[in-house]
Each structure stands twice: as structure tokens, then as C-alpha cells.
Design brief:
Blueprint (H helix, E strand, L loop, with lengths): L2 E6 L1 H4 L8 E4 L3 H9 L5 E6 L1 H7 L1 H4 L7 E4 L3
Parallel strand pairs: 1-2, 1-3, 3-4
């Protein structure tokens, strides 16, 4: 099993660090895209805020064997 990462606004994802999640704070659209592109290959699960998921679109959240499982936090 790989690691878990979260991408989104600081206030939405910071608490996940307490559970061992690698938190990637992304406060704007460019930061979200940059965080997604630079995810380490060891990540097996990505937690996205609803806003980050909107930025990345369906391509990021649709299942695919070439990327980690992705879930979206409720807004």
C-alpha cells in the first residue's frame, strides 16, 4: 500500500496531517495543478477538497490504473 496525500486549502486539509496524511496545501488553481503533477509515485490514495477536484476535473477523479485512487471530500 502506498502513502496517502491530500490536496486543497489549508483550512480543509491541515487536520489530516494528524492521521499521517501528506498534506499539499493548494490555495489557488495553479497550486492545485502543481500539487497534482508533483505527487510522488508512492502515493496510493489522494484526498481532494471539492474545490481542488473542480480544478482538476473528471480526468483526475475517474478511476485509472495509471494514477492513485482519488476521493473527494464533501463540501
Amino acid at each position: 500500500m502506498g502513502t496517502v496525500a491530500a490536496i486543497g486549502a489549508r483550512t480543509s486539509v491541515c487536520g489530516l496531517a494528524l492521521a499521517g496524511v501528506d498534506v499539499l496545501v493548494a490555495e489557488d488553481q495553479d497550486a492545485v495543478r502543481r500539487a497534482w503533477r508533483t505527487l510522488p509515485g508512492t502515493v496510493g490514495l489522494v484526498i481532494l477538497t471539492a474545490e481542488a477536484a473542480d480544478v482538476l476535473g473528471d480526468a483526475a477523479t475517474a478511476p485509472a490504473p495509471t494514477r492513485p485512487l482519488t476521493v473527494v471530500m464533501p463540501s
